[in-house]
Amino acid sequence: MTQRPLAGSFRGLRRIAVLTVLALTVPLTATTAEAHSGVEAAPGNPVIAWNIHAQTAIYDTAKQSPTTSTRSFAIVQGAVYDAVNAVAGRPYEPLVSAPRSRPGDSTAAAVAAAAHDTLLWLFPGQAESLNARYDEALAAIPDGRAEDGGVAVGRAAAAAMTESRRDDGFDPTAPWTVGTEPGEYRLTPPGYVNVGAWVPNLKPFVVPDAGAYRVKPPPALTGAAWARDLNEAKSLGAATSTVRTEDQTEAAIWWDDPRMVEWSITRQLAGAHRLSSLRTARLLAMVYVASADTLIACYKAKAHWNFWRPVTAIRLAGTDGNAATDPDPDWTPLRVTAPSPEYPSGHACFTAAVMTALGSFFGRDDLTFAAYSPASGTTRHYDSLQAATAELLEARIWAGVHYRFASEHGHRLGLAVTLDVLNRAFQRR
């Protein structure tokens, strides 16, 4: 497939309407108890209930990284979507499979079986807890043909999904290439770990070729653009910055927690809009699958450019050949730098995918939501997807973990991949 450059500038992101706005407003705010627990109420919606169980297994118990957990969530929610879609009579194109179903098959049983079986495939060591949740879910469903039929549909969807992901390139031991020349990626403090290089080689869920999306080269080290963005990250992103405001510091810490965007906010939206199980399954699958394919494309770009992170570049600025940059060998960012090359920003790619998928599903940008972050100890409120996205791009600079150009171009890449995913999948038949 021919590579397509991503055109356009996002310097004026706050003035750009990212998504179509429709005339519908539903205020969206988590209660304090829900926000602090990280668990939203899910009365009668088995898709949300099992998404919470998935969070427990993937993040709370397995402690998977944000990147690894994105693959896991896409596997689980993709299977749940195929199962619920089949029970509903296949109104949408399936993601991986379209199991045979009969009228009256239990949606709740299909969800439980699809989620349980995919989670058990991912985490066989959690069999006891996963089986307990599964037994609990089935105990609430009357025994009989409806339950049996739903279970059969869910298991078939899970089997098809897990088979499609065997040998998909997941290899947690794969290392990044580490360079020694100015501009080349070095391992970063404090851990200096070398993990995550499997992502560029992961098989996409929807797009034919994750390498078909690209960003332009990072700025030349000797140019004014490089000096500007390096010095901005150095000034605003330092752990001891005197120019970063208190609110910027809070935002930088708040956005460092991936649960704020993908888990809490997406479930809030599903609950506030009283989505059916089918619509919830489709929403979650759109968000997670688009995020997964976006991160694969994003990490392919990271591997290609293999660019150094601010914590490295600022300490070694004396080697970049630019008279407008000065080294600070003791410089430390506000937040810990993720163990991957700089360009483009993975978090910007990821957030663009989530927000674009949400906006596409609801058909609007003006969604009001809020969420609590245990990391910052605060709740932040937003009146649109665009406003949240714009703050995220700034927050990665305030955190000292990305340059502005990495955030902006990460957003562009995430937008392009997600639009492609949504054009290819989850459409009405």
UniProtKB/TrEMBL annotation:
| UniProt xrefs under Gene3D superfamilies | 1.10.606.20
State whether keyword Signal applies. yes
EC assignment: the record states: 1.11.1.-
The source's superkingdom equals: Bacteria
Q: What InterPro entries does the database record attribute to this sequence?
A: PAP2/HPO (IPR000326), PAP2/HPO_sf (IPR036938), V-haloperoxidase (IPR052559)
Q: Which UniProt keywords apply?
A: Oxidoreductase, Peroxidase, Signal
Q: What is this protein called?
A: Vanadium-dependent haloperoxidase
